[in-house]
Amino acid sequence: MPLSFLFFLLLLGIVGLIFIPSSQTLVMRQFALGITSAVFVSSLFLWLGFDQSTPKFQFIVDRLWLPIANINLILGVDGISLFFVMLTTLIFPLCLLASWSFNKEKVKTYLISFLGMEFILLLVFTNLDLLFFYIFFEAVLIPMFLVIGIYGSRERKIRAAYMFFLYTLLGSLFMLIGIIYIYLFAGSTNYEILSVITFSSYDQKWLWFAFFASFAAKVPMLPVHIWLPEAHVEAPTAGSVILAGILLKLGSYGFLRFSLGLFPLASVYFTPFIFSLSLLGVVYTSLTAIRQTDLKRLIAYTSVAHMNLVMIGLFTGTVIGLEAAILQSLSHGFVSSALFLIIGVLYDRWHSRVVKYYGGLTHTMPIFVTIFLFFTMANLGLPGTSSFIGEFLLLVSAFEANSTACFFAATSMILGGGYSLWLFNRIAYGNIKLIGVDLSFREFMVFLPLLLSTLFMGIYPNIFFSVMHATVSNLVWVDLWL
Q1: Fewer CB in 10 Å around end: N or C, the chain?
Q2: In degrees to the nearest 10, what's the CA dihedral of 275, 277, 282, 285?
Q3: CA neighbor of 329 nearest in space, from 244, 257, 412
Q4: Of 219, 376, 355, which is closest to residue 291 (Cα–Cα)?
Q5: Which pLDDT value is given to residue 477?
Q6: Which long-range contacts (CB under 8 A, 24 or more apart) does 227-230 make?
Q7: Is the pLDDT of residue 482 over 50?
Q8: Residue 438, CA atoms < 13 Å, CB-side half-sphere
Q9: Rounded Cα gap, residues 23 and 116, in angstroms
Q10: CB atoms < 10 A from the CB of 280, how many?
């Protein structure tokens, strides 16, 4: 099934929502859920039709845009971007299903924002032109800004929305300068053309740093991580799921696709810098997570720790390290999304995210606590879950690159056990503080795909590695890294 069909479905959904009367709330919800579900099913055909033996881009869509300037809109997927596309198409219908009882005003704007966000994110992950990548990379800020600013849960939502917008926008201005220089130097912004052009060592270093400023804010890395906990706390549940499950992956995807792909010499040069910054981020945010009293803020800091661990894997310069980083990114998309949905279930019932107000839920909500326990174990890397595969291989590759870095990176598993188990213990056990109903069938069906995906990736990861192996092997320049 061609890639363009996914975008056609989403455009159809956006146009359809515009013409559905605002009073028909249920019809709009059903229509949006149907469209996003159809997009996910269509993305499965991309996987089924994907040729694993070649590192080349497949399902190419090439549209003339500015032929005089040699700039075209080119879309395609390879072994790296395929699973990010599928993660995106999986998370969005689950978000819409989770927010089924969302009863604030302007439901139409809410649904259009989510469909527009999915449309733009798919363009980001499939784009093969540097200029268009920048445009869509920044355009995704607009619908998320609206979701946080309009549908946030507290008065600080405007401040959080502006903080999210400005942090990520200002960092990307340096990338725009780099893209303009690349176009003037190479005469094209086509990624496939640029990948065979060799920039000088000096050019690579400053261009790498220009791109770093943009991607580091999205990962996020220290010290530009401040916007993330604030945005998570103020965003509605579905907004937090998109932030953690997909938007943070834009940073790691950008490093993987452009920093490593176009500037390999600079990537080697700055590896100690990335290791130092990432290790500091892992330890600092893990310790910060332990002392949090707000459920969302706690999970937000754990997301920063996990994504900084991914950065270490990306810059080990080995096939195992890169594949483990991609797998861990996908795993984080499943697990962190589920944890934010779990917090959303609690917030829907009692409208509080303060940890001390909860306790003894295992007596009144056994199904909920069972699912919470599973994703808590997955978050700290229990064998049999997707996080274990990713973290174990990340640490193996880190040990090969730098044993000291591996030692400090491994503390994330110890600290992760600390904040994850302590959080679960306080909410699930102890005296009964609140009495509520267990998960409904709709809520259970939101968690089921994430639970099955986490298990499947943990038990049979080779099906994912086999798809990405040719692309990753082609990306790693062994003579440079060694």
Answers
A1: C
A2: 180
A3: 244
A4: 355
A5: 58
A6: 227/160, 227/163, 227/164, 227/167, 227/168, 228/300, 228/303, 228/304, 229/296, 229/297, 229/300, 229/301, 230/156, 230/159, 230/160, 230/163, 230/164
A7: no
A8: 14
A9: 21
A10: 15
Q: Token digits for 362? A: 């295992």
Nearest of 172, 181, 82, 87 to residue 133 by alpha carbon: 172
| Inter-CA distances, 466 with 353, 450, 462, Å | 41, 21, 6
Any bridge partners for residue 127, and if so which? 75
* H/E run at residue 59: strand 58-66
Interior angle at CA 213, CA 207 and CA 216, nearest 5? 125
160 vs 229: CA distance, rounded Å: 9
Burial of 283 (0-12, 13-18, 19+ CB in 10 A): middle
What 3-state class would DSSP assign to 308? helix
What per-residue confidence (pLDDT) applies to 480?
Answer: 45
Mark 19-39 as b/e (b = at least 16 C-beta within 10 Å): eeeeeeeeebbebbbebbbbb
How many residues are recorded in the chain? 482
Q: How many percent of the chain have pLDDT more than 70?
A: 96
Confidence tier at 478 by pLDDT (50, 70, 90): very low
Give the type of residue at 447: F
Side chain identity at 414, as an amino acid letter?
I
Mean pLDDT of 126-150: 89
pTM, 2 dp:
0.93
DSSP at 198: P
Q: What's the rounded Cα separation, in Å, for the pair 1 and 231?
A: 36
Cβ pair 367, 263 in contact under 8 A: no
Tokens, residue 286: 């893990």
Using DSSP, state whether 468 is helix, strand or coil: helix
Check if the beta carbon of residue 75 is closer than 8 Å to that of residue 119: no
Does residue 126 carry a pLDDT above 50? yes
pLDDT digits (tens, 9 = 90+) for 172-203: 888 999 999 999 998 888 898 888 888 888 99
Quick: pLDDT tens for 448-473. 999 999 999 999 999 999 999 888 98
- Quick one: pLDDT band at residue 122, thresholds 50, 70, 90? very high
What SS3 state is found at 222? coil
Question: Buried b vs exposed e over 236-265: b needs ≥16 C-beta within 10 Å?
Answer: bbbbbbbbbbbbbbbbbbbbbbbbbbbbbb
What is d(CA 56, CA 178) in angstroms, rounded to the nearest whole number? 25
CA distance 316 to 325: 10
For residue 375, give the nearest of 299, 300, 434, 309 by alpha carbon.
299
pLDDT digits (tens, 9 = 90+) for 234-267: 888 898 999 989 999 999 999 999 999 889 889 9
